What does this fold into?
Amino acid sequence: MVRARVLLLSAATLSACSVGPDYRPRTPAELGVPEAYSVPGAPTREDLTRWWNRFDDPVLGRLVEQAAANNTDVAQAIARLRQAREPLVQSRGSLLPTVSGSTGYQRNENLRGGGRSFTLPDGTVVDTGGGGTNNFSVGLSASWQVGIFGELRRTVEATRAQYESAGYDYAGVIQTVQSETARNYVLARAYQAQIANARASLTLQDDNLEIAGFRVQAGLVSSLDSEQARVQRAQTAATIPSLEQQYNAAVSRLGVLTGQAPGALKGELVAAKPIPTGPASVGIGIPADTLRQRPDVRSAERALAAATAQIGVAKARLYPALAITGNINTNATSIGNIGDAITGGLFAGLTQAIFNGGRLRSQVRGQEAIAEAALAAYKGTVLLALEDVENAIVALTTAQAREREFAIALDAANTSAILSRSQYRSGLTDFTTLNQQEAALLSARNGLTQARSDAATALVALYVALGGGWDANTIPDVDTVRAANVTEPR
It folds into this structure.
């Protein structure tokens, strides 16, 4: 027994040694992260966990939350997260011994001689034979792969990192679904506004067509004015079916994103509402914040950690492997005597690969190449995140500038259209001038609508680029997903 304890203690001491490189988080400087963005922005970081509330649009907020709970892509991400947890459970189990037990019973009968006999009621004599013996057995066996060079712990390290990476991938899917929902909601409201602009222009153009008809009948102008009015009205009317088709596509997409049929939201969104507007500026923080806030960056970092741990797993195969097995057995002729005689054994063995044609060292080199690729992918993800932030900032500022200019243009175009219509009625200008002013008015209206839509879309993109939409202080796992009341398939 003392020897067994010494053997187990020695194995545990040896198992504290792990070959292969220990993972080291990279600094922002090593990843090429600058100290500040190259575009202007507020350096104060904001809490963007629920960024959709900043638009002050209850319908938008409800749709975003509904999509995060019911979207089919989210359900798939949850399933992948659950799947990624199982290798971690299995690798942790490999650190512990495997124990199995067995029991048996055997009855031996002596069918001839020395037995007893008895007579049945019909007179038949039955010989029970020469008596019998019972044999009861109980056995317990255990085996333990010690992993003296850390291959088991490296495996646990790799599977834990892979599980955490899957959690961040889930957060990334949540972000994508949220942004797509908000973007399509903005598009739906923008198409409603453009349809309203076209119909408002049609009302004016109907009046122009009527005025041109009166002036033609009065002989004041040629029929060219009337034909020009008809052309203008028809062209404006032709834009409405296309806008309605695009509006329908956006609303249908919202239905699918929220886990419903395409037409599920058409009744709810049929009433036109303004394009949602958020705050004029956003606290973007510093570039290093993306290392913590962006789930895709953190997923790439965990993938690098997993690849680094796999190098240790591959290197450990170059060294001896220790296995310890033991068993305890007992046999007795009765249950009461089952513990009278107990036998057992303990065996420890080392195995070492002597010749394998260079296969094991090739596996090490292959894992090192995988880790190098994971590091490059990590750096690329970081730089792409910074690019997303800067592009979104520029898109937002330019859209806001366009919105201001189009507001001025709309005011001027509206005034010009009113004056042109009044002058045409009085015969002070021709229809071509009126036509041009009416077209400029519609263009200014649609330009302002598009600029507002672009500003809202850019703001959504900026929130997502900054890593909003999830709690960056936690590592998403199966338990936190359940706690968030996210629908999980069973």
In short: DSSP finds eleven helices and six strands in the chain. The mean pLDDT is 86.
